[in-house]
Amino acid sequence: GDRVIDVGSEWRTFSNDKATKDPSRVGDTQNPLLSDGDLSTMIGKGTGAASFDEFGNSKYQNRRTMSSSDRAMMNAFKEITNMADRINLPRNIVDRTNNLFKQVYEQKSLKGRSNDAIASACLYIACRQEGVPRTFKEICAVSRISKKEIGRCFKLILKALETSVDLITTGDFMSRFCSNLGLPKQVQMAATHIARKAVELDLVPGRSPISVAAAAIYMASQASAEKRTQKEIGDIAGVADVTIRQSYRLIYPRAPDLFPADFKFDTPVDKLPQL
Amino acid sequence: MNNARTDRSLEGAMTPGIPIFSPMMPYGTGLTPQPVQSTNSLSILEEQQRQQQQQQAAQQSTSQQATQGTSGQTPQLFHSQTLTTAPLPGTTPLYPSPMTPMTPITPATPASESSGIVPQLQNIVSTVNLGCKLDLKTIALRARNAEYNPKRFAAVIMRIREPRTTALIFSSGKMVCTGAKSEEQSRLAARKYARVVQKLGFPAKFLDFKIQNMVGSCDVKFPIRLEGLVLTHQQFSSYEPELFPGLIYRMIKPRIVLLIFVSGKVVLTGAKVRAEIYEAFENIYPILKGFRKTT
């Protein structure tokens, strides 16, 4: 018959009957996609009196490092998981990031750069590739690397892997920013519509999509019952409130055309704040 | 014929009107007599010119096409060019020379008109070797407009007002001159710095003057759809509004980097000779016309 070796984790890890004598225990999960095969053994901490020599030090002190060739890579994977955890990224993005990192690491063209910088840039690219881009500032918030360095590594990685990413749009960030501000779905949809129309009508040439999105959220929230200040929106979006002001000034003249047709105005269009 | 052309263009190129490699140097008598050096650099320059001419023989037709449309504006520019094969003013007519294949095949106007816009040079970076070790402290103390902060940077930063340039002078004797607006001005400024150093008592020479980078800018006078450009020219362009508001276009031939902005302004950099800037702009102009914003 077909017998398949299950390379998943040992599912009886937590059982404590016959703890030391269970012959079906075979080791940790294998990660063949990422490391070069995980067949090394580690010496664990001792239990019982015999594992300690005189003076109370444990015999077999050194836990020999497993795969020294990809110790740096394992370290980077751990760092990537930590970073992703801080902003609650799903497993598929983390896996994609790990794959990107592995490709970059094996290529060795970016060998001199800090691994953390490469990892942060890989995380940024993975989010982009999955269709849920995070701003550089959001990645900066969970990484110790500066935005400048992440940006540099980002461009280098795209060159090294010969890939490209789609351009960011205002709609990519709407759901996240609006939820963080606690805005209802109506306001979010209105803001998405405003931002899209503003870009279509070319009211904001040369402005970063994040700034346009922030200004659209400001306009939509100010027209609804859930008003938010520029400072609050700037905090969430990572843009300065003067930037929101600048973009808002550009979209304000055409405000009546930008709102969706079925929007319920709490504050009518002509009473929107004029900055 | 060729040689005569190079000699004449050299004369015009070095300093306006003054033959530089004669014993009567315009910059005072402090210079150590260096006839050997001078002729060396002269012959090196001639060689470079010949090489350039050979390399650019194929491009001559296109560059002359470009210069046709703009020759009204550029006689002064070409006067100061040393390393291009563009025709000298007054010596050749406006039409391309008989050897170009364009004239019999195409009608009066070529298929795509030249843009009529000439990029203006904004900055030239050049290096020169003064050929002797320098004591930066004495230079910093005795020269005017010199700053020296060894803890921050290991070179003397000297500035002159005419041409408005800045030079970094290193203790090895090598010097970087930045800020000039033309090749001629860059060379002139470098010579002035060399003279300053010489007057302070160092046996300064003027070896291996080389222009390392030229920056030009121009305006296409219409707004550009950068998103469209990055979609079609993905392998050359990089447009990240979060990082920089302009599109960074890395042209392969010639190897020039262009910064293209929504307003229609274009910055070209990375050129070693003026013709590369012009050629790069002529290459990008039809592409930009295709991405003109219609509203």
From TrEMBL, chain A:
MF term (GO), any: promoter-specific chromatin binding
Keywords, alphabetical: Acyltransferase, Chromosome, DNA-binding, Initiation factor, Metal-binding, Nucleus, Protein biosynthesis, Repeat, Transcription, Transcription regulation, Transferase, Zinc, Zinc-finger
Single GO biological process annotation from the record: RNA polymerase II core complex assembly
CDD domains: CYCLIN_TFIIB_rpt1, CYCLIN_TFIIB_rpt2
Pfam families to which the protein is assigned, alphabetical: TFIIB
PROSITE patterns: TFIIB
Record keyword Cell inner membrane present: no
Substrates-to-products reaction catalysed: L-lysyl-[protein] + acetyl-CoA = N(6)-acetyl-L-lysyl-[protein] + CoA + H(+)
Main enzyme class: transferase
SUPFAM superfamilies: Cyclin-like
Tree of life domain: Eukaryota
Family, per entry: Belongs to the TFIIB family.
Function summary: General transcription factor that plays a role in transcription initiation by RNA polymerase II (Pol II). Involved in the pre-initiation complex (PIC) formation and Pol II recruitment at promoter DNA. Together with the TATA box-bound TBP forms the core initiation complex and provides a bridge between TBP and the Pol II-TFIIF complex. Released from the PIC early following the onset of transcription during the initiation and elongation transition and reassociates with TBP during the next transcription cycle. Associates with chromatin to core promoter-specific regions.
Name of the molecule in the record: Transcription initiation factor IIB
